[in-house]
Design goal:
The structure is a homodimer. In chain A, the strands form four sheets. Chain A has a six-stranded mixed sheet with strand order 2-1-3-8-7-6, sandwiched between helices. A five-stranded mixed sheet of chain A has the order 14-13-15-16-17, sandwiched between helices. In chain A, strands 10-11-9-12 form a four-stranded antiparallel sheet. Chain A folds into three domains: 170 residues, Molybdenum Cofactor Biosythetic Enzyme, Chain A; 77 residues, Alpha-Beta Plaits; 162 residues, CinA-like (Maf protein), CATH 3.90.950. Chain A is α/β, with parallel strands linked by helices. The N and C termini of chain A lie far apart (58 Å). Chain A has 15 helices and 17 strands.
Chain lengths: 420, 420
């Protein structure tokens, strides 16, 4: 089946935002085995949106539109689509109630224009929006399928994941069964080269590497009759990947993120954790705290950005800072070790580095980061050189810190077990 | 003049890469006053590329294609375009020399297929590529202009900047002038309803609201002869927006983010700041630390997620926690006030809330957040009820905290001035 993506929004046409929705949807559709030959972008304009939709309906089986479902007069996607498909708009009481309760929960007055979001084309499958007000819609007419999704990625993605993906997977008779093998501490090209022989001779199931910040996901996909058959089909390939990547694999569960894998490792071993951050400025703590249930293991987080804070809060020695500079292996080590004393935590992680844009020198360039990890009094420090701008460097440092934590904890326990 | 963008590449259709070129080119074209009504993406496929190009040439004056200029058999953009425009390909000796010397410089053997990159449509304006091998091309035929650019952003951007931009700027005389009025502490629908009358009767300049997480941006755009005229044209409308939105406006400078506005306010008033976070887990500190130069004002950040950490690190009273619960106005107030004592900072901000997914009760539902801000010993606490998942709630809380900090600092100084 052929799918086509239309992104609606003048802000994309003007280049004010990057069209990450298209990349997300394209990747998802490819994963579902749908062929995508065209993507297009149109502004909030009835005539041109109409033209784009008509063209798409001529050449594709499924058209996914994103954006333009909001409350303002600019938002025209639903109205235009209903008009093209000759479906009339009716008020959906369930959606209206959800929009109203959204505002009630926020404690703000709902303006009249918000009611428009509860209008749906008659006969549409309405998809509740758990992260915003505009519901998603699936329209089936004349053998074609049109799917309307809200523009904000934090609304579009969960909606696709939970409702649209299963809907699309069922269309082709068969289904797709996917297992994702998630890898940390290794770059994409290295990982890809390690499975090139598998890729070259693959038919069904297939394996494909996807680069994520600080990680690589190997997606194993089988086209199959049902989930049970799929599970059976992917099993030998997943086993082969486990042999090849060993300790680098932190999960094969799609819901488990790297931070969750780390938190689960802490929980399983009854270890408490604290963080001390300089250049990442709280991002590492924030990622750990994004894991529900982390409160059982997370003791405290410190953001010690200045030298003064490193000394006052943690007791890092003036001499260590003076002799080696704040961005050094010695300071990373002392930050982690002192934090263990101050917080009485089993595991402490420290990050100090140059995120830029200024402050780099030939010896200590922007992107140089030291990460320290102290597990039950044993401290490991690693040096990293990251590329990219300030945000990318900080994001890479957070992933590296999680990877190092995982590695240090595993090594500690393998040694303990070995000694026994 | 109307411009249209076609991005060529199967990797974009598959969602393997995000189409940042389109955003870049769209923004550049908008800045040049060119109207862009359509963007599209096609794979490395002659038939579909041909169709997309023919459609674009029918409805636009200028078509910019990016990607598919490389040496492999997959790269078909130049061949297909020459065919559509009925121009024959000839070997360009200058380009061939550049390709050859590129390989010489790299110290690698040039494979035969690389010669293909020096083939150009007869009569084309050839644009040297200083960062790669495939030259860019400008083709003028039958009153239409087709511009071909290489796909890698580090080749495309400098080429556009140095050669294409000046070429396009000369075509049309006019330009677009844009000012963005950034607002915090107010939702999109409220902001939109406050300017509906302006939107309804607008011609030139125009104003349009854009929702950003925790903010609304009002973009004022004038179509004008030059920057100077544009500035004059938007001035009355920007002034009107300032009257309507008052203190809610935190900047009219496109480069200033909310966190930067807050940091600048701290710098201007020689105020130091520290953060104490529970549910946001370090995200607030991380956003502040994303502002270069923050080290002058940022003292330290604490992530006190558990009750124990709130007591041990900050000295929040056991009784306060016990009586009101960790998610309460009283605890937010005490966190901010105690942090001011512990860190000796002029401004402290505390965040405590329920980010979910679990732990909500009818009285204290998921999304309930209290934010405290202490400015020179005066503490303000506000209650918020955010929607969405864990990540969205935390992101909303961070924006609200920045907004509250700004408000409290401004109020403090307006009172100080008033008392004088």
């Amino acid at each position: 089946m052929i799918v086509e993506l239309i992104s609606v929004g003048t802000e994309i046409l003007l280049g004010n935002i990057v069209n990450t929705n298209a990349a997300y949807l394209a990747e998802q559709c490819a994963g579902l085995g749908l062929s995508c030959y065209y993507q297009s972008v149109v502004g909030d304009n009835v005539v041109r949106l109409r033209a784009a939709l008509c063209t798409a309906l001529e050449r594709s089986d499924i058209v996914i539109l994103s954006g333009g479902l909001g409350p303002t007069t600019d938002d025209l996607t639903k109205e235009t689509t209903a008009d093209v498909l000759k479906m009339s708009l009716v008020m959906d009481p369930h959606s209206l109630e959800r929009v109203e309760s959204y505002f009630q929960k926020m404690g703000t007055q709902m303006t009249e224009n918000n009611k428009k979001q509860a209008l749906v084309p008659q006969g549409a499958i309405v998809i509740d929006n758990d992260n915003g007000t505009a519901p998603g819609l699936i329209l089936e007419k004349n053998g074609k399928r049109v799917i309307l999704l809200p523009g904000p990625p934090n609304e579009l993605r969960p909606m696709f994941e939970e409702r649209i993906r299963p809907y699309l997977a069922k269309l082709d008779g068969g289904t797709l069964y996917t297992r994702t093998v998630k890898i940390c501490g290794m770059g994409e090209s290295k990982a890809a080269s390690m499975i090139q022989d598998l890729i070259d001779r693959q038919t069904n199931p297939t394996v494909a590497p996807y680069a994520k910040p600080g990680e690589v996901h190997l997606r194993v996909t089988a086209r199959c009759a049902d989930e049970r058959e799929g599970e059976k089909m992917v099993k030998p390939l997943v086993k082969e990947l486990k042999t090849r990547f060993g300790m680098h694999i932190y999960t094969t569960d799609p819901k488990v993120t790297l931070e969750r894998a780390v938190v689960e490792l802490l929980l399983a071993n009854h270890l408490t954790v604290s963080t001390v951050e300089s250049c990442t400025g709280g991002l590492l703590a924030a990622r750990l705290i994004n894991v529900p249930g982390v409160s059982e293991v997370f003791k405290s987080g410190y953001v010690t950005y200045s030298n003064k804070a490193k000394r006052r809060v943690l007791g890092v020695k003036k001499g260590t800072l003076h002799k080696n500079g704040a961005v050094s292996a010695q300071v990373a080590e002392e930050m982690a070790a002192k934090a263990a004393l101050v917080t009485k935590s089993d595991v402490t992680v420290s990050v100090t580095g140059l995120a830029g844009p200024d402050g780099g020198t030939p010896e200590k360039p922007v992107g140089l980061v030291y990460i320290g990890c102290c597990v039950c009094k044993k401290t490991t420090v690693k040096e990293y050189r990251f590329n990219g701008g300030r945000e990318k460097i900080r994001e890479s440092a957070v992933s590296a810190a999680l990877t190092l934590m995982r590695q240090c904890i595993l090594e500690y326990y393998s040694e303990v077990t070995f000694r026994k």
